[in-house]
Structures are given as structure tokens and as C-alpha cells.
């Protein structure tokens, strides 16, 4: 008997699976890793789950919050104050509030005024059109000046987009700024961020249990190698076997989609997908005996540093939950051909640790109780000018084959909220098509 196959048990694939199983379809989900969750997966520290890649919610992530409500988890989301800083000119500065901007001496007063005013104006713009065909680098240089680009925005964009930073469209930065502005308190004095008590993996686990309860099944540690298609439908060829399917949803990265289904697509679609780029992420977690900085989020605006951000999770969530350990994420977005990307953890730590002393001269490697190192090959799609015309379709050129990927999220930045929105959206399309074909009986 045929069923719907989903490649990828990240949040987008799970959301789609949840909707499809609830609509009465039989769904099989294939995941290459032993556990579901994708980029939102977790490890355990001191008996408490913790995200392998740091995660929080903004108050504008309303779809995540209402989905958590639907799954009975709304009460588990805590909104806690967070403190942001920036490392620039060899020292730490508070950042993200009007008062901290005034004290931030790497910018001169006229630069600060231009930066503050134009950022406020950006938050008020509602329509993205004017930002779609200009790069953030050009726009910021023109409206906020070269120094502000070099001191603030340039480092932030290099942090996420590496050598593609100057190609990123202003629309991406505008959306980030406008959503972030709404996430801040009215006074602009601070920001509360959302965290799922017990980690975001709880929503993943709840989804898995509901999908299984509605007849869905999981094939974990069972990577899909290839999709084949003939007049009767698809065959999902995995590491462990092959399975028939009437429809297939690839809920994964563009390279993963091309690897399993590229040969089924029109040449034009395949080539367009092949041109899309994304940075990978290295995320190193240090379990420490002492706190490194007073901030939850520290942007690094210093091109000599080998990483882009320090996220001290326990300056946001109490360390007591993790057996008293201080938890520090060292964040580094790189293209996967960068020499550090595939380096072993010892080499990465060897490159990073001397620089932690620049952030806090008292830092000593003896503070480290344990460390963990994670890689994500596809972490941040690069949104370039004219991206709207390049957004991959959810209905692919191969009938019955669908795609849901972070590369479709536009103009917002990728995140759990949008994995849910887009997972929902693709499920609706599939349900529409299935209803049109009268294929429900096949379930
Ligand atoms: C460093 C970092 C920090 C982040 N911080 C935040 C944050 O603070 N807040 C927030 O909301 N979001 C954050 N995100 C983003 C968030 O994690 C993602 O947007 C979301 O989890 C993406 O879900 P997805 O299902 O689209 O993709 P993924 O999570 O990538 O899921 C795709 C799944 O498909 C599987 N797969 C791929 N190919 C195959 C195959 N051939 N066979 C079987 N399985 C396959 C993969 O193993 C994976 O599990 C962050 C991401 C990163 C990398």
C-alpha cells in the first residue's frame, strides 16, 4: 500500500507530517540522524536537554507560540530578559539600547545619530520593494556611512554570511531590523526572548508522539539515497531498503534535495537550485566553571577573531538547571570549504581559546569542564538581490514531488517559527493536490 514519504525530520518536515497524518494520510518520515529535530536537535548537559545550536524566540515568532499552544506547550515558553553586547576596538560594550549607543565610542556622534535615526526609520517601513534590488552593504554605506558599515553591520553580516556578506540584499537586513524592533520593549531599553523550558526539543518530541499516534511512522538513521519515479509513483531508496510512495516531500536543504531528487527535476529548475548558496555553521559548546562575559549575546566586531559570536546561554537561562555549569556557545558561520570547517574539535579549540582571553583576560582553559562541537552544512541561506525571483517552488517540476526548505523563507530570516509556517504551507498544497486527485483512498 502506498503512502506519503517525507525526507527529513526537522521542524518543517514534522509540521507537515503532523498536518498530513491528522488529515488521515499515511506518512512515513525518513531521517538520516538517529533522532528527529534537525537543526533544533539537542544534547544533554547536567541531566537537562540543551540545543546543539543556540536557540531562542523573538516576540514576533507568533506562529511558533500558537503552534506550541495547539500542542499544549504554550505555558512552557518563558520570556526572559536578555542582554546584548558587542566586542569592538578591543573591548566589550553594552549594545542594543539607545543609552548604550550613546556610550559606544567606536562611532562618532554624527554616525550614531545617523545610525539611530535611520534604524528607527527602517523599523517603520512596511513594504520591502525598495530593498530587494540593493545590497545591504550599498544601502548602509549610503544611508549610515562607511564607518557604521565597518563597525556594526559589516561584522554582523560577515558573521552570518562569511565572504558572501557584501552580496546580501538589504531586504534581509531590513526584515531582521523591523522584526527585531518590534520584539524590543516599547522603551527600547531591553529585549525579552522566549525559551522553551526543557529546551525546544520538547515541541519536536510532542510532534513525534502525535504523528505516531495518528499512524505516522519514523525511519530514523535511515538516510534517503535516491528517489525513483515511474508510472505507479515513487520509490524511496534508503540506506536500509526501499519503500513505495504516492507523494514525496523533501523537507531538507537544497543540496540534500538535489542529491536525492535532482535527476527528477527539469534542467532549468535543477540549475537554478544549484546557484543558491548557504553558509554552514560551526557551533562549539563549552561547559565552564565561571562566566566569561556579562552578556547572553555578544557580537564580535573584530575581523582578527576566528569566530563571530559568543552566546552565554546561562546569562539567559539559570545555570542551576544544568548542574551549575556555565554554558557558552562559540558561533562561527563558514562555507563548508573553509579549512576550519572540517577540522577536528581540538584544532578548532586551539584556534579559538587564545581569543577568549581577549574578551576576558582572566579566562583560563582550566575553566573548561567539557566541550562539544557541532557542524551544520546548511545553516543560513544567502539572500541576494533579486532573490524573490529565485525562491524555489514548493511544487517541483516533478509531479507529486514537493520541497520545503529554509531557502524558501523570504523576506524573513530562517528560524523555527518559519519552519512551522512553511511546513504548514506545503502540507496545505499537498492536501489540495491530493483532494484534486481523489487520492485519499490510497492512504
Ligand atoms: C547556529 C544556528 C542557530 C539558530 N538559532 C535559532 C534561534 O535562535 N531561533 C530559531 O527559531 N531558529 C534558530 N535556528 C534555525 C532553526 O534551527 C531552523 O530554522 C529550523 O530548525 C529548520 O528546520 P527545517 O526542518 O527547515 O530544517 P532542518 O532542521 O535542517 O531539517 C532537515 C532534516 O532533514 C534531514 N535530511 C536531509 N537530507 C536527508 C536525507 N537524504 N535522508 C534523510 N534525512 C535527511 C536532516 O538530517 C535534518 O534533520 C538556528 C540555526 C542554526 C544553524
Distance between the termini: 8 Å
| Strand arrangement across the biggest beta sheet | 7-6-15-16-17-14-18
Write the CATH homologous superfamily of the largest domain. FAD/NAD(P)-binding domain
State the helicity in percent bands: 25-40%
**Low-confidence spans:** 439-443
Overall description:
The chain has 443 residues and is an alpha/beta fold. It has 3 domains: 185 residues, FAD/NAD(P)-binding domain (3-Layer(bba) Sandwich), CATH 3.50.50; 129 residues, Alpha-Beta Complex (Polyamine Oxidase, Chain A, domain 2), CATH 3.90.660.20; 76 residues, no CATH class. Helix content is 34%, strand content 24%. It is built from 12 helices and 19 strands. Strands 7-6-15-16-17-14-18 form a 7-stranded mixed sheet, with helices on both faces. Strand 3 and strand 4 form a beta hairpin. The longest helix is centred in the last third of the chain and has 22 residues. The C terminus is likely disordered. The site of flavin-adenine dinucleotide (FAD) has 34 residues, from helix 1, helix 9, strand 14, strand 18 and helix 12.
Offer a few descriptive terms.
443 residues; alpha/beta; FAD/NAD(P)-binding domain; Polyamine Oxidase, Chain A, domain 2; 3 domains; 7-stranded mixed beta sheet; 5-stranded parallel beta sheet; 12 helices; disordered C terminus; binds flavin-adenine dinucleotide
